[in-house]
Design goal:
By secondary structure, the protein is mostly helical. The chain has helices at residues 2-7, 12-22, 28-34, 40-52, 68-76, 78-91, and strands at 56-58, 64-66.
C-alpha cells in the first residue's frame, strides 16, 4: 500500500517516466520543463520522496536519475503501459 500511495501522488509517475525516458541523469530545470513546467516546490517534493524511497538518486553534480530499483519499477509497469495503449486506441 505504501508503494501505491507514493505512485498515486500527483506528478509522481510523470517524474519517473521522464527520468526513464531521458535515459541519462537530468538536471532539475530540464526535468521541470519536461514535466510541463510543474512548480519547483512540487517537483522538489516528488524528487525527495523518490530519493527517500530509493527510486531516484541525485548524482554528485546535482542531476537526477533512476536507481536500479526505479528501473525495475518501470519494467514492472510495462504491462500497464501496454494496456493503456490499447485503451487509448479504443477510445479513439
Amino acid at each position: 500500500m505504501a508503494a501505491l500511495d507514493l505512485l498515486g501522488r500527483r506528478w509522481t509517475l510523470r517524474v519517473i517516466w521522464e527520468l526513464h525516458r531521458h535515459g541519462a541523469p537530468i538536471g532539475f530545470r530540464d526535468l521541470q520543463r519536461r514535466c510541463d513546467d510543474m512548480s519547483s516546490s512540487v517537483l522538489s517534493t516528488r524528487l525527495t520522496e523518490l530519493r527517500e524511497s530509493d527510486i531516484a538518486t541525485q548524482t554528485p553534480d546535482g542531476a537526477w536519475q533512476l536507481t536500479a530499483l526505479g528501473t525495475d519499477l518501470v519494467t514492472a509497469m510495462g504491462p500497464l503501459l501496454e494496456w493503456s495503449r490499447v485503451w487509448a486506441e479504443r477510445r479513439g
